Amino acid sequence: MELHSARAYRTGSAVGIGQASAHHGELLQGVFEGSDGRVHRALVTLPYSGRGSRAQFYPSDHHWGIVGTPELSKVRRAAILALRRFSEYPGPVKGGQIEIVSDVPRGIGMGSSTSDVTATIRAVADFYGVSLSHEEVGRMAVLAECASDSIMIDDQVVLFAHREGVVLETFGAQLPPIVVVGCDTQPGTRVDTLELRPARYDERELASFQVLRAALRRAVARGDVELLGRVATASARINERFLPKPGFAQLVDLNRSLGGCGVQVAHSGTLAGLIFDGRRADLADTIERCVAGLAELGLPVVGTIGALAAPAVDGVPA
Length: 318
Prior knowledge:
Layout: E1 2-6, E2 16-33, E3 39-60, E4 65-66, H1 73-85, E5 95-102, H2 112-127, H3 134-145, E6 157-161, E7 166-172, E8 178-184, H4 203-222, H5 225-239, H6 248-257, E9 262-265, E10 271-277, H7 283-296, E11 301-306
Parallel strand pairs: 4-5
Antiparallel strand pairs: 1-5, 2-3, 3-5, 6-7, 8-10, 8-11, 9-10
Helix pairs in contact: 1-2, 1-3, 2-3, 4-5
């Protein structure tokens, strides 16, 4: 667990507490048309509830703003935005301190900053006794960090415009019953999302995104893990042109050899995940063989997402 704190003077004992889960990259990411007729960069996030961030907000009535170390700049912005949102509420709060406890690895595509930011916004709202909508939290998160995944929208599967904080489409209440074995394709490498140039897709790729969007819509509606896996793999292949994953072809081959459904990636990180149908009878054995196959490729397992948790690998909990 990591503890980060933005130090300011604490006043009183009242605090606000907020939590947010991590994610494991995306199932689909590209450019899509919205109901407004414009095209938007958007994604479908793969939630990872096994990891996350917890924020505590300690208010101050005599210290303006949120003071903290440089690495908490996004958290500070999120707290300030949330305080502005509640500026008309009664009370003398001017600023305060945010403490973050997180077990989300940094810079590999698990949404560490979005998890911190979302937890922070929820902590300030909790202090004021207000429940913000998922969409409002999403818009504030984008303002705080320029681009955000949709982990705050945890009750729907959505196509989320991650640089605008807008939901382009809601596919359904939940994903099909998938199990994903995740790995880090470049251990030790860290990716700064904001330093990446936005992908410039060609005409063929732009057309593909419309087909993939429709296919994902069907996969969620029908509970079709195989179709979902094909969508994720196709999106990951397009991403190979912009942020290649070492060993991607071997991961696809391993997944296929185990009767898996596909491979998903973090489009702005080093993560990759092998997708399996959570309803298959030999799931436990398949995951064990998958972990062994990843070890042979020299890729550390970061955890298992879905109905069945894998055992810890090299001290890393599932």
